[in-house]
From TrEMBL:
InterPro entries, per the entry: KH_dom-like_a/b, OsmC/Ohr_fam, OsmC/Ohr_hydroprdx_reductase, OsmC/Ohrsf
Organism, as annotated: Roseinatronobacter domitianus
Alphabetized SUPFAM superfamilies for the sequence: OsmC-like
Highest taxon, organism lineage: Bacteria
Name of this protein: OsmC family protein
Amino acid sequence: MGEPATVLTGCLAPIDRTGLEGLIEKGKADPKAIKTLSCKTVAEGRFRHANYIRDLPPYIVDEPPGLLGDDTAPNPSEASLAALGSCVCVGLHANAVHRGITVNKLEIEMEADLNITAVWGTGDQSEKPVGFTDVRMKVVMEADAPQEVIDELIAHVAKWSPVFNTFSRPVNMEIAAA
């Protein structure tokens, strides 16, 4: 009898192990493959924006009242932290399943420091870092593995997480009028 097609991971919803193994083999077969992702952001008024990704309902991003928004959704910086935490969680969960580790709990607590005095370039424009200067992540992971294995898993995922690496290294950027 072979490995189960679906691996139960404690209280987390199961991951299709066969599907995961298929993704692993596909990545090994074409290691230079590039996938282009897209998002269309539409300003709705004030600082609320609808972001259209694939065929999903719009993902809303807004600002809090202290930044003149309506406080209906995370602000852009908070949304980027959510993307970071989600990407690292996906990596941790997938790698745990791949290694046969059962995960009972997986959470990431994050904080990031940001100087907002430039007010999007309309306020204080003195020399300073723009964007996050420090991001602190604490992984809360309960699994059927010793802490050393979990620590190694976290380091491995930090090396291979697309969003973690986007945060931690320069990225080529282009912006221009359409």
